[in-house]
């Protein structure tokens, strides 16, 4: 028999073609998926150092939160039901007062929630002190693409949150040198633009060039709301996507969070440039509108799914997927009597392989395939003694998973071959300590920011 680090036995596996295969085993060694085959075959072939019983569970690729804000985790519950402008009244005062330790514990708390929701990788568009966010990711065992919040204009932005073009590029380059490829290559450092209204043409061009120089990604908020459109049309006579393209920014290394208020022409432009859009349903529907998701899919564009952070709710991608399906069905499917305008298979791809494509990690994660990194979650779907009446019995398990499962159904999480959660218990970090420390920092930040 051959040795391996981990063997998940008697599970049902979600395959890349979005079908389910019953009674399989998954062998993991040195952080990668060694084999996925019939349980009897792999049980006879491998002698594992660690064994996980997958009976009654569905093995899936880890979910990927393709747009979040770990620095805003301690704003949870503060902005709900608040009138505009949320950005000026809460987000800016909050983020501008963050100290390095605040960011560390906020990221730790965010990571705990991610792990318990089956999220194994995320892309963060940036804030202050992002080296502390990277330090937390290393401790948590997660995979992440981390950027700095980059702004060089905007009168409503405090001075400590914006800087010159030279300063912005230099600080991201320093973060890149310190953290890119660290934690066994689980941490990638990206460039970012916070939004078009806080970016000069010089900053856009410099970010595009700097990211190309080191072959890394660019994380942007794009077409999130109508004020962006007004800003670009008034100042440049171009819509946001057209303006960014004219400055040489759009390309296959760009993750465009939100992507809501886009014309069909802009969507075709993004598709032609290889830009990956990321929808954040709860955030978008609360204040920005309905995305043109079916058009993106018809053009063959992969789409990522994001939570937009915990300030407006939870980090539950199952919930986000259902919300997007219902919204698109009501807004675009119902008027044309199309009951399957956004099938469950497409939603699962957004939360897994689409997110991996958005993070430029499609060759590493996003699907359960031999040779890919072992980023795997187990969803407790059918295990006795019938403790999940919302999932079983079912006539179609895949549809039921998408429409009924939630973060609380994730039982086990593996990242890079390491078991980070087993039967809902975190193995690498102290959950109680993190919640306690985060609470202490929440109180201090709230006082400093004056948003009590």
Itemize the secondary structure elements and their pairings.
Layout: E1 2-14, E2 20-29, E3 32-38, H1 39-45, E4 46-53, E5 57-61, E6 63-68, H2 86-96, H3 100-116, E7 119-127, H4 130-140, E8 143-148, H5 165-179, H6 182-185, E9 187-193, H7 201-214, E10 218-222, H8 226-236, H9 240-246, E11 254-258, H10 264-273, E12 276-279, H11 281-287, H12 293-298, E13 304-305, H13 317-333, H14 344-358, E14 376-380, H15 397-404, E15 410-415, E16 418-422, E17 425-426, H16 431-449
Parallel strand pairs: 1-4, 1-5, 6-7, 7-8, 8-9, 9-10, 10-11, 11-12, 12-13
Antiparallel strand pairs: 1-2, 2-3, 5-14, 14-15, 15-16, 16-17
Can you characterise this structure?
The chain is an alpha/beta fold and 452 residues long. The chain has 2 domains: 114 residues, Roll (Urease, subunit C, domain 1), CATH 2.30.40.10; 296 residues, Alpha-Beta Barrel (TIM Barrel). It is built from 16 helices and 17 strands. The strands form 2 sheets. Strands 1, 2, 3, 4, 5, 14, 15, 16 and 17 form a 9-stranded mixed sheet that branches. Helix 3 packs parallel to helix 4. The radius of gyration is 21 Å and the shape is globular. The mean pLDDT is 95.
């Amino acid at each position: 028999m051959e040795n391996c680090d981990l063997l998940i036995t008697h599970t049902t596996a979600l395959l890349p073609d979005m079908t389910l295969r019953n009674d399989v085993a998954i062998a993991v060694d040195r952080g990668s998926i060694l084999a996925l085959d019939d349980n009897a075959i792999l049980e006879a072939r491998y002698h594992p150092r660690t064994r996980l019983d997958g009976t009654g569970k569905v093995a899936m690729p880890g979910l990927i939160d393709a747009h979040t804000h770990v620095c805003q985790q301690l704003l949870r519950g503060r902005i709900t039901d608040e009138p505009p402008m949320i950005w000026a009244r809460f987000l800016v005062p909050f983020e501008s007062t963050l100290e390095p330790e605040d960011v560390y514990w906020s990221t730790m708390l965010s990571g705990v929630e991610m792990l318990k929701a089956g999220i194994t990788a995320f892309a963060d568009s940036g804030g202050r002190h992002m080296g502390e966010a990277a330090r937390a990711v290393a401790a948590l065992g997660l995979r992440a693409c981390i950027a700095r919040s980059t702004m060089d204009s905007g009168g409503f932005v405090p001075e400590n949150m914006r800087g010159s073009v030279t300063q912005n590029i230099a600080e991201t380059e320093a973060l890149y040198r310190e953290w890119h490829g660290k934690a066994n290559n689980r941490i990638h450092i990206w460039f970012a633009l916070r939004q078009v209204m806080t970016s000069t043409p010089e900053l856009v061009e410099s970010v595009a060039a700097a990211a190309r120089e080191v072959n890394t990604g660019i994380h942007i908020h794009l077409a999130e709301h109508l004020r962006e459109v007004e800003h670009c049309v008034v100042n440049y006579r171009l819509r946001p996507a057209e303006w960014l393209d004219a400055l040489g920014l759009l390309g296959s290394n760009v993750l465009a969070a939100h992507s809501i208020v886009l014309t069909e022409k802009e969507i075709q432009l993004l598709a032609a440039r290889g830009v990956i859009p990321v929808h954040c349903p709860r955030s978008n529907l609360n204040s920005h509108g309905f995305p043109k998701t079916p058009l993106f899919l018809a053009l063959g564009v992969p789409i990522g799914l994001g939570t937009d952070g915990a300030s407006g709710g939870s980090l539950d991608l199952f919930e986000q997927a259902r919300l997007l399906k219902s919204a698109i069905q009501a807004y675009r499917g119902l008027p044309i009597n199309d009951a399957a305008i956004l099938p469950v298979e497409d939603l699962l791809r957004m939360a897994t392989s689409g997110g991996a494509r958005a993070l430029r990690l499609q060759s590493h994660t996003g699907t359960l395939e031999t040779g890919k990194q072992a980023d795997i979650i187990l969803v407790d779907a059918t295990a006795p003694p019938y403790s999940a009446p919302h999932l079983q019995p079912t006539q179609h398990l895949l549809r039921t998973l998408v429409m009924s499962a939630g973060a609380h159904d994730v039982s086990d999480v593996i990242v890079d071959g390491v078991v980070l959660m087993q039967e809902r218990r975190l193995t690498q970090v102290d959950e109680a300590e993190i919640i306690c420390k985060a609470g202490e920092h929440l109180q201090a930040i709230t006082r400093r920011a004056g948003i009590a």
